[in-house]
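Handout, section B. The chain below has 106 residues.
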Amino acid sequence: MSAHTPGPWHVGGIFMPNSDDPRANVWGPTPQGFQSGLVICKKAKPMDARLIAAAPDLLRACIESRKLGMKIYHNANAHEAAMDWGKVKALMDAAIEKAEGKAVRE
């Protein structure tokens, strides 16, 4: 597993919500006894902040989907399953590698 700040991450506070350019911070989990967690990202656009906050969850979903897909693939008999699985696996591998900071295959 990567060395990123563990989730869950959340969006905390939107700055200048009524302006044309509102911004938000993304925070990591709050340790017991602390008022807040680590700042993951500062002053992101709210839509970007939500996507950033979802990153640990998206990574976990990709990892688990890949595991499940491998089980399905190894039990499939249809030749189309192998082609479909290859495309899906490549997309998931790229997303996992990017999230974990590894080299992404082109």
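Note. The chain has three helices and three strands. Compare this with the example in section A.
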